[in-house]
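[[Per-residue structure]]
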Amino acid sequence: MAPYTTFDNISYREQYKKELTENYGKKRSFGTINKYLNAVNNLSQVIGSIQFNITRRGMYNHGFMWEKGVTRDLGREVYPSDINDYGQVVGRESDNAFLLEQDGSKLVIQQNGRAIAINNHGDVVGDMRPEPH
């Protein structure tokens, strides 16, 4: 429970407000902000996503990894779902399943799919949508 409590006390509103201001050139009003904590490994690394419902801009999502008080942005439209004890993260980016290594390298492991879980052997389970004919 400690990683969640520590994480929950960190304010991301200002961080992402600054990012949006820089990206779009002027301040935007925020609607709702949702934080999703998806998984934590035995090293207390936490993954999840922060989702903003921005007025007239739709949804804005960023995946993140939190470790020892430091947040690492995993990118826009990244939905991480699991992390193993080696820091390997799996999830979905756009419509593709991905594997993110501890060194930051990212591999698409299935187009039109999503990776749901990874074990400490690096075995990944997920699902996929068939290609339209």
Remarks:
- The CA atoms of residues 16 and 22 lie 10 Å apart.
- The longest strand covers residues 30-40.
- Helices lie at 2-8, 13-24.
